């Protein structure tokens, strides 16, 4: 029970990632932990999935850079549709580099790629368990 990522999830996670290998890896890790996983290769597909689905989507796991729109733009659009959704950004670029370029904010939840199964599980679990921020945050 002390190991990170041992908690089984039941929440629904939407993965927006254009790299099929990374998307597949994240799906396999999260599915094994009990999460329901939706997959999208770009922001457009992610928005379509979110629009078609009646059930809650608890978390968006998105690449910072996506074809067509940034992960941040996707997260903002999705939050208008689903105000309760939480978000974890991932990138192969270090968070400090993205922050310096103004791509992401310091307060975001960030996962460095490549990630280990326990890093992904731990980050997702921590974000889902945290008390929600006010929508203005």
The succession of helices and strands, N to C, reads: EHEHEHEHEH
Give the averaged pLDDT, no decimals: 88
The amount of helix comes to 25-40%
Unreliable stretches covering 5 or more consecutive residues: 1-5
What can be said about the biggest beta sheet? 5 strands, parallel
The fraction of residues in strands falls at 15-25%
**SS summary, helix count:** 5
Taking strands numbered 1, 2, ... along the chain, how are they ordered across the largest sheet?
2-1-3-4-5
- The shape is globular
Radius of gyration: 14 Å
N→C terminal distance: 32 Å
Global structural class: alpha/beta
Number of strands: 5
Task: Describe this entry's structure for a reader.
α2 packs parallel to α3. With about 140 residues, the chain is α/β, with parallel strands linked by helices. Helices cover about 40% and strands about 20% of the residues. Strands 2-1-3-4-5 form a five-stranded parallel β-sheet, with helices on both faces. The N and C termini lie far apart (about 30 Å). β1, α1 (about 20-30) and β2 (about 35-40) form a beta-alpha-beta unit. The radius of gyration is 14 Å and the shape is globular. It has helices spanning about 20-30, 45-50, 70-80, 95-100, 115-130, and strands at about 10-15, 35-40, 60-65, 85-90, 110. The protein is built from five helices and five strands, in the order βαβαβαβαβα.
């Amino acid at each position: 029970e002390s190991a990170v990522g041992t908690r089984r999830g039941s929440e629904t996670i939407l993965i927006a990632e254009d790299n099929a290998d990374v998307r597949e890896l994240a799906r396999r890790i999260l599915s094994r932990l009990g999460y329901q996983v939706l997959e999208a290769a770009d922001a457009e597909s992610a928005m379509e999935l979110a629009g078609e689905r009646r059930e809650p989507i608890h978390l968006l796991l998105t690449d910072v850079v996506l074809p067509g729109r940034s992960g941040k733009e996707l997260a903002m659009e999705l939050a208008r549709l689903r105000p309760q959704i939480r978000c974890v950004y991932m990138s192969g670029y270090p968070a400090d580099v993205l922050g310096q370029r103004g791509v992401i904010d310091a307060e975001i939840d960030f996962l460095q790629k490549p990630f280990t199964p326990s890093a992904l599980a731990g980050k997702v679990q921590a974000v889902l368990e945290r008390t929600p921020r006010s929508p203005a945050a």
